[in-house]
Amino acid sequence: MNPEPFVNPPVYTIIMVTNFFAIAFGFIFKDMLEYQVAKWDTNRQSEKQITYDTLNIRTAYIGMCTFLSLFMGASLSVFGLTSWLSYAIGAVIVLLPALLVWVQLGSMLSLLVSGGSEAVDIDSYGAGQKFDLQAPKPSK
């Protein structure tokens, strides 16, 4: 019996490393965004909006999206796709929704500023009742 030594193909290493960095950048992005919201919350009278479009937050978001794209491309290449095709599909799968999430983040933060945390809380709109936009908000 001649066991073959464990060989870790480079694609599996790329998958593990890019997944680690995508998660790390995700935590950095989350913490920076939470800090900006907390900073706005303590200074509501002086600050009229949440400044989420700073260079640091944008860099963390772009880093997270980049490593997610690389992770998806490396994961798709395991199935035998050519490298350029798998990385192109991975970029499309990640970057288009990431752009939509960034735009939605801006509108959600402006909604938070105008209506408070209750404006973005879906449970505060009468749990268990029929959803009707014209109905008045139930009193507590």
Question: What do these coordinates show?
Answer:
- By secondary structure, the protein is mostly helical.
- 66% of the residues lie in helices and 0% in strands.
The percent of residues in helical segments reads 55-70%
User: Overall pLDDT, averaged?
Assistant: 83
Largest sheet: none
Sketch the topology as an H/E string, one letter per element. Answer: HHHH
Which class do the helix and strand fractions yield?
A: mainly alpha
Overall 3D form: elongated
CA-CA gap between termini: 74 Å
Strand content: under 5%
How many runs of DSSP E, i.e. beta strands?
0
Using the CA coordinates, give the radius of gyration: 21 Å
Enumerate the spans where pLDDT stays under 50 for 5 or more consecutive residues: none
Number of helices: 4
Note the topology.
Blueprint: H1 10-42, H2 55-77, H3 83-115, H4 117-120
Helix pairs in contact: 1-2, 2-3
Condensed summary:
This protein has 140 residues and is mainly α. The chain is 66% helix and 0% strand.
Which descriptors apply to this entry?
single chain, 140 residues, mainly alpha, 4 helices, 0% strand
